[in-house]
Predict the 3D structure of the following.
Amino acid sequence: MKIPTKKLKCGFEMPVFGLGTWRMGGGYKKGTNTDKADINAIRAAIKLGVMHIDTAELYGEGHTEELVGKAIRGNDRKKLFIASKVNGQNLSYRNVINSCKASLKRLKTDYLDLYIIHWPNHKISIKTPCAPLTIS
């Protein structure tokens, strides 16, 4: 199946729909009773042409990202569009960096195609410091 993409004015292109992974690997707490089925579901979606996979550090306390990492292993990473989200409690500059690094490690990939704020948190300023943002 060929999934249409949307090209933004800036040239960024992404699939118009994808696979959400909420509740795979647990809800807000880690679960392990359906890991094999969850991995197989993600793999089946990829086989059917779904290349956009959406996850978050919050899902299953990070376990869902681990399952996505296992499911995408063996696929051409350049053909996948992986999105993850930073928890609203981790919006300070340093915590965003650390959360992203932890997500990359759990996903076993060296980049994300999209990284967004899961829930806004008005108690934490998202103003960036003067230093450039680096994740290495």
Observations:
- The chain has three helices and six strands.
- Residues 15-117 form a domain with the TIM Barrel fold (CATH 3.20.20.100).
- The radius of gyration is 15 Å.
